[in-house]
UniProtKB/TrEMBL annotation:
This is TIM-barrel fold. SUPFAM superfamilies: Metallo-dependent hydrolases (SSF51556). Residues 4-306 form the Amidohydrolase-related domain. Gene3D superfamilies: Metal-dependent hydrolases. It holds the Pfam family Amidohydro_2. Keywords: Lyase.
Length: 332
């Protein structure tokens, strides 16, 4: 069955930044934070101090994954330009979102370049306290639906119907946790698509909390959630992940399978569980019909991120904005 990895990171140069400081490469796929924490960032055999497009494609091909969505995050450091380059090099395999620190002096200038010059049609907000913006902007907790600097970005993106906004807001014990904000934004910008990463950070001990978040999303057909890294989040390594199946059951019951997107969050997640296992657990769970599997593994990511030919054309075009707008008009 065809698959799109809806949550993958390329790492040309390790440049992580979060509350632990900067992340520096050690070799052997390992890296060290400034506070001394050492992590295995890249799975064995996939790179010494980088996770290139070619390394990702090797894993994908071995697991029959046709395409992938390239996202950015503070763990690896934003890889915007490298992701753009790889979309240009492998347009049939990759589409990408960019990221920006909205509190940078030139944030809006950066956003305009990514959209108008490079042709990005998705943005990733990694706002989690544990690994994202709230970890190094803790002096000013912010909300995506009320902060003025973030608002500037959304006002600009409103000119691009079909734009995808992907958000990682961390777990419920972090100040960054704000599922209600996603519902507010989805209502405010009905022509945008919103993707909540990691199934809103589920806990099998607090399923009612997960249900409450998903019920907020349920009325809005433009809100999706990806299933990436939930094995790491619930601390599970026993395939096919019975606890992950419990939270999948809740998500299916509330949102349905047309609003769930499979992903792995590799390379880091592939150091805890093999990429092959992450690619096959949904089929092995027995919880989804073939039609539902096709939606979760492929169709939903294709619809939300790849936007048919429009985004691919924008990524390859000399005039990405013009081509995107023309393709949107043709789709209508």
């Amino acid at each position: 069955m065809k698959k799109i990895d809806g949550h993958l990171h390329l790492v040309r140069t390790i440049a992580g930044l979060n509350g632990k400081g900067r992340l520096n490469a050690l070799g052997g796929g390992k890296a060290i934070w400034d506070d001394g924490t050492v992590i295995q960032l890249i799975p064995q055999g996939s790179g010494e101090d980088s996770f290139t497009a070619e390394a990702a494609l090797q894993l994908m091909d071995g697991a029959d994954v046709e395409k992938a969505v390239l996202l950015q995050g503070s763990l690896n450091g934003y890889q915007n330009y490298y992701s753009y380059q790889m979309v240009k090099k492998y347009p049939e395999r990759f589409i990408a979102a960019f990221s920006v620190d909205p509190f940078a002096d030139n944030a809006l200038t950066i956003v305009k370049r990514q959209v108008e010059e490079l042709g990005f049609r998705a943005i990733k907000f990694e706002i989690s306290q544990g690994g994202g913006l709230h970890g190094y902007h803790s002096e000013k907790p912010f909300r995506l639906d009320t902060d003025a600097k973030v608002g500037e970005i959304f006002h600009y993106l409103a000119d691009y119907p079909g734009f995808t906004v992907t958000v990682d807001y961390g777990s419920s014990d972090q100040v960054s946790y704000q599922p209600e904000v996603i519902a507010n934004l989805a209502a405010r910008y009905p022509l945008m698509d919103f993707v909540v990463c990691h199934l809103s950070f589920p806990s099998v001990d607090h399923l009612n909390r997960l249900k409450a978040a998903l019920e907020l999303f349920k009325p809005f057909s433009n809100i999706y959630t990806d299933l990436s890294a939930i094995q790491d989040i619930v601390g599970e390594r026993d395939f096919p992940y019975p606890n992950c199946q419990k939270v999948l059951k809740v998500a299916k019951e509330i949102l349905g399978t047309k609003r769930l997107i499979w992903g792995t969050d590799s390379p880091w997640s592939a150091t805890f569980n093999s990429y092959d296992d992450l690619a096959s657990w949904l089929a092995a769970s027995g919880q989804l019909t073939d039609e539902e599997l096709a939606d979760v593994l492929y169709n939903n990511a294709e619809r939300v991120y790849f936007k048919k030919s429009a985004v691919q054309a924008a990524a390859e075009a000399d005039d990405p904005v013009l081509l995107f707008d023309e393709a949107q008009r043709e789709d209508k």
